[in-house]
Specification:
With about 210 residues, the chain is α/β, with parallel strands linked by helices. The chain has a 5-stranded parallel beta sheet with strand order 2-1-3-4-5, sandwiched between helices. Helix 1 packs parallel to helix 3, helix 4 packs across helix 5 and helix 5 packs across helix 9. The longest helix is centred in the middle third of the chain and has 25 residues. The chain binds CO-5-methoxybenzimidazolylcobamide. The site of CO-5-methoxybenzimidazolylcobamide has 28 residues, from helix 5, strand 3, strand 4 and helix 9.
Length: about 210
């Protein structure tokens, strides 16, 4: 097994110290940081994402894989920056105004990071202004919103209306998700996309690139 496959395998098993050690070794062996990212860390996270989608693994396995991913990224990030490796896209993500649930949103963040996106996580209880101002400031072309309460879902519509007023609807794409959210709701409020789970959120975000 190559060292990159070993990184992917250990990431899938959530073995953070091993991933850290193997990433360090791979870089010491002269493997390019982008290759370590793509064929090691992202490859492992992609498998976890696909298994999560098929209900072959569950939230805890994804969380420990993501922790291993972060352990590897801690080593890799400075090298990627130095090598000028660009993320595949930038996403502003948050839980909408009035909503404090963030477990699902954090899973989406991890999957997006795992797929090579730069994730600007603005946290919970985020106003439409916060989503839009962050996207404008950081030049992000995707806004991702999570809601777990039927009472907070309308705030998603607020973000889309504000984007429209600012002439940015369609330029900045919007994607929504969370347990009570549906494709019908996305169509009703004019969101660019809906995804039912964190792994599909990555597929959806990629269609906006
Ligand atoms: Co709350 N809560 N909660 N809660 N809570 C629910 C959501 C609820 C269904 C429980 C119930 O009554 N059966 C209910 C909502 C009812 C409704 O509106 N339909 C509810 C309620 C009522 C409340 C309070 C109002 C309770 C109260 O105080 N009376 C209160 C509200 C606080 C607030 O937000 N203002 C409240 C508080 C809390 C806690 C703080 C205690 C805690 C949150 C802790 C935290 O998140 N840090 C909590 C929790 C944990 C839950 C349950 C038990 C679990 C939610 C969760 O994390 N699921 C939940 C009941 C349940 O679901 N069994 C419940 C796991 C997570 C991985 O799933 O977030 O759906 P989920 O994410 C999935 C997908 O939806 C998707 O990907 C994820 C994984 O694949 N996804 C996206 C999510 N966001 C996405 C974004 C995307 C794409 C996909 O693109 C942008």
């Amino acid at each position: 097994m190559s060292i990159l496959q070993e990184i992917a395998e250990n990431l899938m098993k959530g073995k953070a110290p091993a991933v850290k050690e193997l990433v360090t070794k791979a870089l010491d062996d002269g493997i390019e940081p982008a290759e370590v990212l793509g064929e090691g860390l992202i490859a492992g996270m992609n498998v976890i994402g696909a298994r999560f989608k098929k209900n072959e693994v569950y939230v805890p396995e994804v969380l420990i894989a993501a922790r291993a991913m972060h352990a590897g990224m801690d080593i890799l990030k400075p090298k990627l920056v130095a090598a000028g490796v660009e993320p595949i896209g930038k996403v502003v993500i948050g839980t909408v105004k009035g909503d404090l649930h963030d477990i699902g949103k954090n899973l989406v963040c991890m999957m997006l990071e795992g797929a090579g996106f730069e994730v600007l996580d603005i946290g919970i209880d985020c106003s439409p202004d916060k989503f839009i101002e962050t996207a404008k400031d950081k030049d992000a072309k995707i806004i991702a919103m999570s809601a777990l309460l039927t009472t907070t879902m309308p705030s998603m519509k607020g973000v889309i209306e504000e984007l429209d007023k600012a002439g940015l609807k369609g330029i900045i794409k919007t994607m929504i998700g969370g347990a009570p959210v549906t494709q019908n709701y996305a169509d009703e409020i004019g969101a660019d996309g809906y995804s039912p789970d964190a792994a599909s959120a990555v597929d959806l975000a990629k269609t906006f690139l």
